[in-house]
Specification:
By secondary structure, this protein is of the alpha+beta class. Helices cover 49% and strands 17% of the residues. The N and C termini lie far apart (52 Å).
Length: 72
Amino acid sequence: MATAIQDLVKESIEVHSVWRNSDRVIHCGRCGGFMVTEQLIDQPAHRCVQCGEIIDAVILQNRRRGLSVGMN
């Protein structure tokens, strides 16, 4: 229980720091929810606090590659 509360507090702090440090709000392409910036193992990514969608440079690159392959 304490861990869940600590996780919620940490996420709340992350959300507030993004709001203060960002001049624009990023919305999730899947659900329209609020995206927060997180540091993954080796690179930053955006995670939706509503649905959990994660977007980073590799995911975007693979999605673009998939679209171009599917169109040929």
